[in-house]
Amino acid sequence: MFASLAERLQETFKKLRGKGRLTESDVNEALREVRMALLEADVNFKVVKDFIARIKERAVGQELLASLNPAQHVIKIVHDELASLMGGSNSKINLAPKPPTVIMMVGLNGAGKTTTTAKLASLLRKQGRRPLMAAADVYRPAAVKQLEVLGKQLNVPVFTMDAGEDPVAIGVASVESAIMGARDIVIIDTAGRQEVNDELMAELETMKEAVSPHEILLVVDAMTGQAAVNVAETFNTRLGLDGVILTKLDGDTRGGAALSVRAVTGKPIKFAGVGEKLDALEQFHPDRMAERILGMGDMLTLIEKAQENFDTEQMAIMQKKIQNMEFTLDDFLDQLNQVKKLGPIDQILGMIPGLGGAKKLKDLQVDEKELVNVEAIIKSMTPAERTDPERVLNGSRKRRIASGSGTTVQEVNRLLKQFEQTRKMMKQLMDMEKTLKKGGKLAKNPFFS
Q: Do the Cβ atoms of 69 and 90 come closer than 8 Å?
């Protein structure tokens, strides 16, 4: 996500930090680099021009002179302006005072509109809502069937009508169905086209008039960069958008769409698609995205993901096991599967401050295949071997495990060593936490000498 832009900006600010005092010339040089990085990232030219002007006004004025650490202050200014550029704060769905809330999903073919409709339904259901999806795309082959399949996977109802029905009639009937079925949100998956044309817009305008949506959300592919911004501008002019959902943001190495769409249309990015799975839709937080771009990590999103995916009761049991040194390889595997629920490992690492730097992540090769091997090794062990590997395992047993898991004895030994180190480290951390909670002093730690 934003890899090329992030790397350029982080390198620029690294040079800036190396200077004790900053002159106006230093700031101008850094801003030239920032300007080039943004243009190469396919950010709208006028947006870049205004962005650089705002930073320069703040970075060479009294605000900088009063700062104790000028380099950090410039980086903070860039962070604040980046967040402001993308919308400032998170924008939420406008819920109707009297249900159901009607959401129209619009966009061109290929942007991922139908899948995003399902992802949004999944996200809203987790927030305690009762969504209904309406299949109003009667032109694209299998669009209705696709939404029905996704609805079954999510256990979210899908409203459909006979093939050949008028999409506007489907939209109106879906709202009536939601009222009858006590559904508080209707998400209408409308038809798209290969390109913006009058026929598409006229149909969507008629749909808007008929269903009176509380939200019109445009789904655009972030990887199309400036083209996505142009599409957003056209849709906004004709329909009056309430927000944008950027899909494929996890594959967007440049960032042109994310950094331009709000400035050009005046409409916020409300959600971002960050993967193919049906839970891979996140609320878009401009301040957190600015932190990711500048290599500062994104701990708030990571914590939210953990709270959403981790079983708190199970975590409490696990803490007790660690404290009593009863943590087994079965527990180790459970924890591994919990972490895998958070998403791809490189995305998780990118949210941790200090590891978020684009260059560091590029240098750090994350091999998902190793996690598969770990699972295979543990599952090839007997219950006794998983519970007390140190006492039970010998050479012949390790050879049997390696053969059963399709790995080598060396890989089995490496896993056992990692497990033992992890168990000891987790115990140390818990002991340190207990000491701090009691207000006591920590003994000298070899890691912090």
A: no
Q: Six-digit token pair at 124?
A: 């809203």
The predicted-structure confidence for 177-231, as pLDDT tens digits, reads as follows 999 999 999 999 999 888 888 888 899 999 999 999 999 999 999 888 888 888 9
| Assigned CATH topology for domain 3-85 | Four Helix Bundle (Hemerythrin (Met), subunit A) (1.20.120)
Q: Domain 101-284 in CATH: superfamily?
A: P-loop containing nucleotide triphosphate hydrolases (3.40.50.300)
Quickly count: other Cβ atoms within 10 Å of residue 272's Cβ.
23
Determine the average pLDDT of the residues in 250-257.
Answer: 76
Contacts of 206 (CB under 8 A, 6+ apart): 168
Residue extents of the structural domains in the chain: 3-85, 101-284, 303-448
281 has which bridge partners? 273
Give the pLDDT band (50/70/90) at residue 87. confident
**Contact indicator for 87, 249 with CB cutoff of 8 Å:** no
CB contact at 8 A, 188 and 171? yes
Q: What are phi and psi of 176, to 5 degrees?
A: -65, -40
Of 313, 319, 325, 298, give the one whose Cα is nearest residue 433.
319
What CATH architecture applies to the domain 303-448?
Answer: Orthogonal Bundle (1.10)
